[in-house]
Specification:
Oligomer: single chain
Number of helices: 5
CATH topology of the largest domain: Muramoyl-pentapeptide Carboxypeptidase, domain 2
Structural class: alpha+beta
Strand content: 15-25%
Length: 181
């Protein structure tokens, strides 16, 4: 067998594997990322609104991400951190699973270490290593949706932590490990 023919089975199997991967993963990924992803926010502490298209055809819009980082900054001291784009995708998908409309009412997003320590000193419910410190978490309500339904939708996606604060009427959503409380 010539050298060319010896490599042919490997080449053909590589092509078949690539075709299978594209056939299985490609269209689903393309469909999930196609189009514009827009989020609307109302910040309960600053009374500011933001409506922004943060992704177009699966590509994040840098200027929109910068606006979101500013909007979701620690409202107590103005400190900012990069908000995890996966968090934006997660809350977008949660909202879509609930009908795709309504603004998120933000109670808390990024928290500076100083703010987190201050909150910890006042409440045992604030984690020392909170996902808020990493820009991976947001505490929200969704207009027109009960917080119980919001919680259930976030849990169903199995893409991070979900905390339900019934007495305070908000849901914590993060991109950390899958867990719930």
């Amino acid at each position: 067998m010539s050298k060319r023919n010896k490599n042919r089975p490997l080449f053909v199997s590589s092509l078949l594997a690539a075709a299978l991967i594209v056939g299985v993963v490609g269209p689903a990924s393309q469909a999930a990322s196609a189009g514009k992803r827009q989020l609307s926010f109302y910040h309960t502490h600053t009374q500011r609104n933001l409506q922004v298209t943060y992704s177009i055809d699966g590509v994040y819009v840098d200027t929109a991400l910068a606006e979101i980082n500013t909007f979701l900054a620690d409202f107590r001291n103005g400190e900012q951190l990069l908000i995890d784009p996966a968090l934006l995708d997660l809350i977008y998908d949660v909202r879509e699973s609930l009908g795709g409309s309504g603004a998120f009412e933000v109670i808390s997003a990024y928290r500076s270490p100083a703010t987190n320590e201050m909150l910890r000193s006042k409440s045992s419910g604030v984690a020392r290593n909170s996902q808020h410190l990493l820009g991976n978490a947001i505490d929200v309500r969704l207009r027109g949706v009960s917080t119980a339904a919001l919680r259930d939708a976030a849990i169903s996606l199995q893409r991070g932590g979900v905390g339900y604060y019934q007495s305070s009427d908000f849901v914590h959503i993060d991109t950390g490990r899958v867990r719930r409380w």
